[in-house]
Amino acid sequence: MSSLRAKLGILAAGLMLSGCMQATTYQAAPEATLKPADKAQLAKARYAKGAVAEPFRRAIVDYHRREQPGSIVVDSDNHYLYLVQDGGKAIRYGITVGEEALAFSGIARVGNMAEWPKWTPTADIHKRIEGLPASVPGGVDNPLGARALYLYQGNRDTLFRIHGTNQPEYIGASISSGCIRMTNEDVIDLYSRVKQGTIVVVLAPKQGDSPYNSKMALQGGGQATTH
């Protein structure tokens, strides 16, 4: 009898702990957000279309920070972007972020939005990467991918972007030239849910270890790039 009671006690403790854990529901981006032009472009993709590692797949999660529903929160430390929803939930997307010296943090807003945008490398990128063209037309081979959200502070373009990628294998890594990359399917989904003027909170380094707490510590800065 004592052995049975002990087992029941362990089971009850496990159930209580599971009730405190973050609820995560993985959901692929709905195909309804894909326009005919998107499907045509994605069908021509020459990059590998392997599955993103499960921790970085689009998911519905519990969210307990103080940002208003509709806000975007970027946790660069953990490679997540959150679109805050009503009812203590958020849509969480896996992302690629900038290397440490190229990262951006602070509060911005979506100042412009574009579908299948062209890419114009900055002078800084030209210095670091030789042989780049002056610009690359929009399309599935463009480094900005299917969509771009241009981040502004006041009326100033920060030159940082949230955009798609033709290198989905790097979702979950820190290898970009400063911008925030998402899979093309995920950035199309995000684009369909936000509008110009949306607030974007990019957490400063080491502030992303507890993405669900209510403390917000932000700092401005970073190196301007377009990719």
Automatic annotation (TrEMBL):
It comes from the Bacteria. Residues 70-203 form the L,D-TPase catalytic domain. PROSITE patterns: LD_TPASE (PS52029), PROKAR_LIPOPROTEIN (PS51257). InterPro entries: LD-transpeptidase, LD_TPept_cat_dom, Transpep_catalytic_dom. The active site is at H163 (proton donor/acceptor), C179 (nucleophile). One of its GO terms (molecular function) is glycosyltransferase activity. Residues 1-23 form the signal peptide. Pathway: Cell wall biogenesis; peptidoglycan biosynthesis. One of its GO terms (biological process) is peptidoglycan-protein cross-linking. Keywords: Cell shape, Cell wall biogenesis/degradation, Glycosyltransferase, Hydrolase, Peptidoglycan synthesis, Signal, Transferase. Pfam families: YkuD (PF03734). The keyword Cell wall biogenesis/degradation applies. One of its GO terms (cellular component) is extracellular region. PANTHER family: L,D-TRANSPEPTIDASE, L,D-TRANSPEPTIDASE ERFK_SRFK-RELATED. Belongs to the YkuD family. This is L,D-transpeptidase.
